Amino acid sequence: MTPAQLRRVREALNSFAVETPSWGFADTGTRFGKFFQDAAAIDLGDKLADAGHVHALTGCCPTVAVHVLWDFKPGEDPKAVARLARKHGVKIGAINPNLFQDQCYKWGSFGNNDATVRAAALQHCVDSVAIGQAVGSEYLSLWFADGTNYPGQGSIRERKHAFEDSLRALHRKLGPKQTMLVEYKPFEPAFYATDIADWGMALLLAKKAGPRAKVLVDTGHHYSAQNIEQIVAWLLDEDMLGGFHFNDRRYADDDLTLGSIDPYQVFRIFHEIHFFAADRGRMPKIAYMIDQCHNEKPKIEATIQTVVMAQELYAKAALVDHAALRVAQAKNNVVDAELILKRAFFTDVTAGLAAWRKANQLPGDPLLAHRRSGYARAAAADRRRRRKELGLTQGGSFA
Ligand code: PSV
Ligand code: MN
Question: Which of 129, 223, 332, 347 is the most core-located residue (most Cβ within 10 A)?
Answer without folding.
Answer: 129
